[in-house]
Each structure stands twice: as C-alpha cells, then as structure tokens.
Amino acid sequence: MLSNDFFETWSPRLLSVLRIVAALLFLSHGTAKLFGFPHVAMFDGVTIGSLFGLAGIIEIVGGVLLALGLFTRPVAFILSGQMAVAYFMMHAPQNFFPLLNGGELAALYSFLFLYFAVAGGGAWSLDKLRSATA
User: How far apart are CA 73 and CA 15, in angstroms?
Assistant: First the structure.
C-alpha cells in the first residue's frame, strides 16, 4: 500500500508533468497556424490579423509560458477562456454533443487549463522557483 508521503511527494511533480505535456501539445496548435509546422491543411493561409492568427499568437505565447510554468495561473485562465470560446464558436453550433461536433479536445483543454489556473504550476515550475527566492 502506498503511503500518504508518496502522494504528497509526487502529486505536485505529476501536476508539473501534466502541465508541461499539455502546454507542448497546445503549443503545436499555434505553430501549425502561424508557421505551418506541423502542417495542417485547414491552417494554410492563416494571417496574423485573422481570428485563427490571433488564436495562434495566444497559443504560442501561452503554450511557452505554461510549459515553463511562468505566470501559470493567469495564463491558464486566459487559455481556458480561449478554448471555451473556440468550443462555442466552432463546435457547439454543429451539434450539441462534443463527440459529434469535434469539440472534445477544445472542451478538455478548457477544463484542464481551468484546473491549472486553480492548482498552479506544480513543483517543477518557474513560478515555484520565483516564490522560493522571493
């Protein structure tokens, strides 16, 4: 049986791992929109001034900051809102059910980022390092 010490030790660390993995996956959406890498045909011709371009900027800046665990709570809150808007603008009008409207990922990111906004960056974050030196 695992002790409470195990969970107390590893919970903040796994929170950081989850944050980093989610941020890097999210970052790839921004790089696909603005830099064409990885290539996604629906993002061909995206301009910075478009809605997709603005989303790409938010995804790149937010993804980098979230991966580093810097300003985790406010950044995650903004990203959660972006994903909620994306869900209701792009997916919900197609169908009520996320499985049928293709919005599962947007909904999941929205709630995951909302969790980071409350939980913070975890043990391995620049936020944690900043608070230790302050």
Answer: 13
Burial class (CB in 10 A: 0-12, 13-18, 19+), 26: buried
CA distance 75 to 33: 20
Each residue's pLDDT tens digit, 7-53: 999 999 999 999 999 999 999 999 999 999 999 999 999 999 999 99
d(CA 14, CA 89): 32
Q: Is 120 left (phi over 0), alpha (psi -120 to 50) or beta?
A: left
CA 111, 117, 118, 122 torsion-angle sign: positive
Give per-residue pLDDT as tens, 100-111: 999 999 999 999
Q: What angle do CA 95, 98, 102 make, to 5 degrees?
A: 85
pTM: 0.94
CA distance 23 to 78: 13
C-beta of residue 87 within 8 angstroms of C-beta of residue 110: yes
